[in-house]
Automatic annotation (TrEMBL), chain A:
Domain of life of the source: Bacteria
Protein name: Amino acid ABC transporter permease
Keyword Transmembrane included in the entry's annotation: yes
Topological relation to the membrane, as annotated: Multi-pass membrane protein
TrEMBL record, chain B:
Residue stretches making up the ABC transmembrane type-1 domain: 250-446
Principal location: membrane
Localization in the cell: Cell inner membrane; Cell membrane
Signal sequence segment: none
Protein name according to UniProt: Amino acid ABC transporter permease
InterPro entries per UniProt: AA_ABC_transptr_permease_3TM, ArtM/GltK/GlnP/TcyL/YhdX-like, MetI-like, MetI-like_sf
Length: 398, 459
């Protein structure tokens, strides 16, 4: 059949319009576009009809209205009587960002430790790390959260007989009542010393790198940095007369007074998120280190580098290239997973804004739209930052 | 060798081999193993001892709780409470209450599915695991027949068994004054749609000078097959209908996870192809779709499908809560699946594409016969990993008020019959055990496939 066609077409290249791949491509795309536009138009029409039928307002007028519900943890001034839905959004977002940020820090530290432990030559260290990874990543995160919240923190003693952690404050089923630092008048000098220490260290490390490139001489940047960033502020702190006091919580009948409260929902979320994500990070770290060729270690040893410098200058920089891209997606996962907070009512963005505020106003489209776009923006921001870092770390090919 | 041994004059040459002496005691046996693995230097020794002490603190209480002090039978809370709490146990007793898990086992598996109808769920489970096992084991023959069974027979049969089938179609196309809403109107509508599709297809193939026969055959096959399935759904088999709000437990977990993965695979393949396409609009649409779903948390997707989706539907169209969750989960996992499939497509050498094109295959034929079989085989571990993630993520549906396995366990805590201080720990331990068994088993399988597929040609 095909042969006949070809023999007929010889000499008269009459190709049907639809058989031209370019034109066919455009036909497909236009059909797709029309279908999408049709679906969107019908959906929006239905939405307005349904909203009108259910008597739900639309638009963002609700943002300025008073929300009228309490939030158990807020980094900003928030009052049930006055604050608006807009404020609810900001408070929820800050809570999400804070749990994600602290969670990422903890998960990274824990994940790197366990990942390195999985490669240990010590049988028992390796075994414990493997068991940790397999157990933690094969149990759903929500169950982790429930276990920490309902199974551990809720079973802590009643405030009347809270556990005493000494200088760390009190622990009971209403949370951790930590001592609250109260900076005194002269404390700002210590803070300034700290900032100066960081800036000077940055300059010194730059200068020493240049000097090493020119003369080959090294400068003990690390210890200088420790001295400048930690030592100098401590010295200033002592000289200015330790201008920092702590407000210790005092056990009371209903709840301890004084200090600062870290609510149990926050602790449960933090522990669950970081221990769960750490299992994934550990696997990434292990894979990254294993991806570095053994010849690299041997070559470094042959050049006379000792174990520490070999790790620091040869293995880790190469492993990081393999580790960073999947690490980014774990950070994103942790940020997105922090939305599970709604299950135990930690006041994150989803819980207070897409939960309580949505139920009160009924404006599902606006609120969910804003919430999803916020997460999308957080994801894209993290991805952009990590891409930049990744580009910085990438192999420079000559 | 024989020279030296036969020459007696060379007195300095040894005539026989010395016995091999034993390795130093420190280098062999358990001592060497301990030295090498546990106590190679003092830091190592300290770490080993600390961990051993930690294990000593953790393991015996855990074993006591789970086995030695656990209660395996009982009828209510008295079996699992101390005397002070109103039960029969010694004052310092603390053990797992497996009697409570046993009493609730039925609910954990089936939810509120009626007792008399649970055989239907069992048949579905048997069909699923019976069909899946030979599919997963590479050496078992009849893969093609098995795939047809799992992708066509199993879904249709499960739908009828689980819901009871016996759907009543009313039709939608012809206005009421032409024909009253009835099953007949539905089939008339169906025939009209088939005719329209055929007419358009015929017109297009005439317009492009190609043979309309294969196209007509394909349309008739698809529409005919669909008609058979739809007709089966409408047959009154005499099964009692079971509403989805009575489903629960592991049944819901598996339904969501399996439907999610089954629906997301074809969508994911389409999106992956779209993302690699050189048609700008298709590519843009795929990228936006994939990045959007991957950028938002699943819980907001579930909120959206449970709260927002009904708003977009025309009045009178009502989606079941489970169906809405399924749609959300499918969209979400389709985006992840698309990225997995894209990885597979990228791993196929360009020569395969070029070879297929040189043979004169069209895009569809090239994908169906050359590229996708290779790419999908490559990404089996990735697909299994996505499935593990999805299986764990199904727990989130409890937040929107569906009772999956974890949801059933969570809701069983409110029952005063078994209320005791150990109920919570026992319930969570059981949940963790079940999820672990499923996920760990799947991850082992994925690792096995990875080793099997690793041809050693990786660059």
């Amino acid at each position: 059949m095909a042969l006949q066609d070809v023999s007929q077409d010889v000499g008269q290249p009459k190709v049907a319009l639809f058989n031209d791949p370019k034109i066919r491509g455009w036909v497909y795309q236009i059909v797709l576009l029309v279908v999408i536009i049709y679906l969107v138009v019908v959906g929006v029409q239905n939405m307005f009809a349904n909203l009108a039928a259910q008597n739900i307002a639309s638009g963002f007028g609700f943002i300025g209205r008073n929300a009228g519900f309490a939030i158990s943890q807020s980094l900003l001034e928030y009052s049930q009587a006055e604050s608006s839905y807009g404020k609810v959004y900001v408070v929820g977002l800050l809570n999400t960002v804070s749990i994600a940020f602290i969670g990422i820090l903890l998960a990274t530290v824990l994940g790197f430790l366990i990942g390195i432990a999985r490669l240990s030559h010590n049988f028992i260290v390796r075994g414990v790390a493997t068991v940790y990874v397999e157990i933690f990543r094969n149990i759903p995160l929500l169950l982790h959260i429930f276990i920490w919240y309902f199974g551990v923190l809720r079973l802590l003693p009643h405030p009347r007989n809270s556990g005493d952690l000494g200088w760390l404050g009190l622990l009971n089923n209403r949370g951790w009542f930590a001592p609250k630092p109260l900076p005194q008048e002269l404390f700002f000098i210590t803070a300034i010393a700290f900032v100066i220490g960081i800036i000077v260290t940055i300059f010194i490390s730059r200068w020493s790198r240049q000097r090493q490139a020119k003369t080959g001489q090294q400068f003990p940047v690390f210890w200088t940095g420790v001295g400048l960033i930690l030592g100098m502020p401590v010295l200033v702190f002592l000289v200015t007369g330790t201008p920092l006091e702590f407000d210790y919580p005092v056990a009371g009948g209903f709840r301890p007074s004084g200090g600062m409260t870290i609510i149990p929902e926050f602790i449960a979320m933090l522990l669950a998120l970081s221990s769960y994500t750490a299992a994934f990070i550990a696997e990434i770290v292990r894979a990254g280190i294993m991806a570095v060729n053994k010849g690299q270690t041997e070559a470094a040893h042959a050049l006379g580098l000792r174990h520490g410098p070999t790790l620091r200058l040869v293995i880790i920089p190469q492993a990081m290239r393999v580790i960073i891209p999947p690490l980014t997606s774990q950070y994103l996962n942790l940020t997105k997973n922090s939305s599970l907070a709604v299950a135990i009512a930690y006041p994150d963005l989803v819980s207070v804004f897409a939960g309580t505020a949505l139920n009160q106003t009924g404006q599902a489209v606006e609120i969910l739209g804003v919430t999803m776009l916020t997460y999308l923006a957080l994801s894209l921001l993290t991805a952009a930052f990590m891409n930049w870092y990744n580009a910085k770390m990438a192999l420079v090919e000559r | 060798m024989s020279d030296t041994s036969n020459n007696p004059s060379a007195a300095f040459v040894r005539n026989e081999m010395i016995e091999q002496s034993a390795a130093p005691a420190r280098a062999v046996g358990i001592v060497a193993w301990l030295r090498g693995n546990l106590f190679s230097n003092w830091v190592d020794s300290v770490i080993t001892l600390i961990i051993l002490y930690g294990l000593y603190l953790m393991i015996p209480p855990l074993l006591n709780f789970a086995f030695f002090d656990a209660i395996w039978s009982g009828t209510d809370r008295t079996a699992c409470t101390t005397e002070a709490q109103g039960g029969v146990r010694a004052p310092d007793w603390f053990g797992g209450c497996w009697a409570y898990v046993d009493a609730y086992f039925n609910q954990f598996i089936y939810g509120r599915y009626p007792d008399d109808e649970q055989w239907r769920v069992n048949i579905v489970f048997i069909m699923f695991f019976g069909g899946l096992a030979p599919l997963l084991i590479p050496s078992v023959p009849f893969k093609q027949a098995n795939i047809i069974f799992m992708s066509i027979v199993f879904p249709v049969a499960s739908f009828i068994l689980l819901t009871g089938g016996n759907l009543h179609y009313t039709g939608f196309l012809l206005p009421g004054f032409v024909m009253e809403p009835s099953a007949t109107r539905f089939w008339v509508d169906y025939a009209i749609i088939t005719a329209v599709v055929l007419a358009i297809g015929y017109g297009v193939s005439r317009g492009t000078d190609s043979d309309p026969e294969p196209m007509v055959k394909m349309v008739l096959w698809i529409m005919g097959g669909l008609a058979v399935v739809l007709a089966l759904f409408a047959v009154p088999f005499g099964l009692e209908p079971v509403e989805t709000d009575r489903w629960g437990g592991l049944l819901v977990t598996l339904v969501i996870a399996i439907t999610g993965i089954a629906v997301s695979l074809p969508i994911g393949i389409a999106l992956a192809l779209g993302r690699r396409s050189n048609m700008p609009i298709v590519k843009l649409f795929s990228v936006i779709f994939i990045e959007f779903w991957r950028g938002v948390p699943l819980i907001t997707v579930l909120f959206m499908s449970s709260v927002m989706l009904p708003l977009f539907l025309p009045e009178g169209v009502h989606f079941d809560k489970l169906l809405r969750a399924l749609i959300g989960v499918a969209m979400f996992s389709a985006a992840y699946m698309a990225e997995v499939v894209r990885g597979g497509l990228q791993a196929i050498p360009k020569g395969q594409y070029e070879g297929a094109m040189a043979l004169g295959l069209g895009f569809g034929q090239m994908m169906r016969m050359i590229i996708l079989p290779q790419a999908l085989t490559l990404v089996i571990p990735g697909i299994v990993n996505t499935f593990i993630g999805l299986f764990k993520d199904t727990t989130l549906v409890l937040i929107i008020g569906l009772f999956d396995f974890l949801g059933q366990i969570q809701s069983s805590f409110t029952d005063p019959t078994w209320a005791s201080p150990v109920q919570l720990v026992s319930g969570y331990m059981f949940a963790a055990f079940v999820y672990f068994v499923f996920c760990f088993g799947m991850s082992r399988y994925s690792a096995y496939m990875e080793r099997r597929l690793d041809t050693g040609h990786k660059s």
